[in-house]
Give the backbone structure.
Amino acid sequence: MLNISPSAEKNRITAFIKNTLEKQGFKNVVIGMSGGVDSTTSFYLLKNAIPPKNIFVVHLYYFESYFKDIKPILKQSGIPKENTYEMSIEPFVKPFQNLVHLEGVHSATFEVLQSDSSKVNRVRRGNIMARVRMIILYDLAKKHNALVCGTENKSEYLLGYFTRFGDAASDFEPIQHLYKTQVYQLASSLGVPKNIIKKTPTAGLWHGQTDEGEFGFSYKEADEVLFYYYDKKLKLEEIKNKGFKNAEKIIKFSLKNSYKHHAPYTLTL
């Protein structure tokens, strides 16, 4: 149902990247690479579209650097050493934490006490981290006269699983039309290393955090339910009758966050 033609998608996305840069008058691109499948797949598409000298790769970590997983890819792809950045965002995040008095979390490890208020603070802190990363990416984009390449997939977009003005901020999105399971298909076809494809999806916002752990359902089930609901326009009851036990939870998760797609709300004349 969600099968794609990886070669056709590669050609389509590569053309999209080239056309976008040409129309907007840019040659350079900045991309944040976490070491996960989405950002790595986006990078592989970029390097098929533009020369290595025009790609600037940024690895922004808090807990642990995964640059060791990225470095061989960049070297093999011919990315100049001066085009790569690896830096901790901890020195940027901690002042925010102190300034807004986020409590219930140990400042060094982000260990969270299990109370409702500390859970909210954990999300607040995660949002700060996501927005700090984007501040750095856009500053480097200004430095190198570049556009910022986003790395969001369609599953994250429809579920609202992103931080506004954080990881959702970008100048163009090469894989936002692809569900997570489709990104895996494309990644395999492009030759993304297996160790990256097999990684458990995580935003890396606190120790032990995983996407599916937060959802309470898998990407595989979510993709199928979202496809039926948004692409095929089936009603919730129809989807539930197909045997998806988490259909209601998935749709509720999506609708609860749908406001993110429409903000800011404005008056019209």
Q: What stands out?
A: The domain at 6-215 is CATH 3.40.50.620 (Rossmann fold). The first strand starts at residue 28 and ends at 32.
